[in-house]
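User: My instructor asked us to take a sequence, write out its structure as tokens, and then describe one feature of it. I'm not sure where to start. Here is the sequence I was given:
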Amino acid sequence: HVQLVESGGDLVQAGGSLRLPCVVSGYTYNKTCMGWFRQAPGKEREGVALISASGVSTNYPDSVAGRFTISRDNAKNTLYLQMSTLKPEDTAMYYCAIRSAWGCAGVPNAYDYWGQGTQVTVS
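Assistant: Let's start with the prediction itself. The structure tokens for your sequence are:
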């Protein structure tokens, strides 16, 4: 079965950095668009980074552009989110997700498989 496992979440001070890996198993990893999403208490889940199957194309909302970087290592079946210059408003549960249909999309309901999430808290 498809499994996505995130890790790397932590409590960090504002201005700090974190790197979140997401290991994928049970899926043809290099044929799909993937994304990182986050959800803060009382808020809707939102996309923070998307990457195409090839890894050539990426997309970020204005709120994290220039601070977050998504990448993928297809040989290791691992997706990464490098976060820098973290702000308190980045505090949320972070999830990785797979979209099984062709192409990328920015909305959570376009993604079919999800990890359990990893908590990032910025003080």
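For the description part of your assignment, you could build on this observation: Residues 28 and 77 are 9 Å apart (CA to CA). Try explaining in your own words what that tells you about the chain.
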